[in-house]
Amino acid sequence: MPRLRPVIDTRLLIMQQIATTESDAALIQQIIAGNADVFETLLKRYEQPVLRILKRHLPYDQVEETAQEVFVKVYQSLPGFKQTGSFKHWLSSIAVRTCYDFWRKHYRNREMPMSSLTEAQAEWLEKTLSNDAEIDHENLGRRKEAREVLEEALGRLSAEDRMVLELVYLEGLTGKEAASLLGWSVANVKVRTFRSRKKLEKILIGLARHEEDR
């Protein structure tokens, strides 16, 4: 008796292959027209870029759930997307603002435990520590691990300060680029970047002096 082979829907495979080569605009038009299945193609195309953004701004254990939230927002907001601009940039702005919303909720709910820093955040803040002459690193390190100090410093910043510092200093974006992602004015980003950097320096110096007095 000949072995039975699984039936393959070649028409479906061809449609999937066509979808993977279609432009973002073409896929978006199909989704808006009611073909929700095409959204999976768009999701697969941009899943990794979104995850990279989230991993830079969120604790690791929050990335997967937040990624789902981002793509739900994207799907719901597609009818309002202006196709004169870049879809990738529009998607990135949703991802960044979702990270911002995460930290706003975190700071409103202080009983929520402080999550670990991402590697990129820790590396950048360690450089800030090492470059500040007013911080006594020896005293600071006697009673606390460096990572605990960094977590505490970030935890004392507002969600707005945290996000703008990460975008401008950690990722190296210009004020205009950060403003576009956050939906703020360029002037607001510049002012907040300056003020938040000063706040962070004061927090780190304060932590160092507190350790000296103990």
Automatic annotation (TrEMBL):
A Gene Ontology biological process term: DNA-templated transcription initiation
Domain RNA polymerase sigma-70 region: 42-108
Domain RNA polymerase sigma factor 70 region 4 type intervals: 148-200
Highest taxon above the source species: Bacteria
Keywords: DNA-binding, Sigma factor, Transcription, Transcription regulation
Family to which the UniProt record says this protein belongs: Belongs to the sigma-70 factor family. ECF subfamily.
Name this protein carries in UniProt: RNA polymerase, sigma-24 subunit, ECF subfamily
Organism this protein belongs to: Desulfococcus multivorans DSM 2059
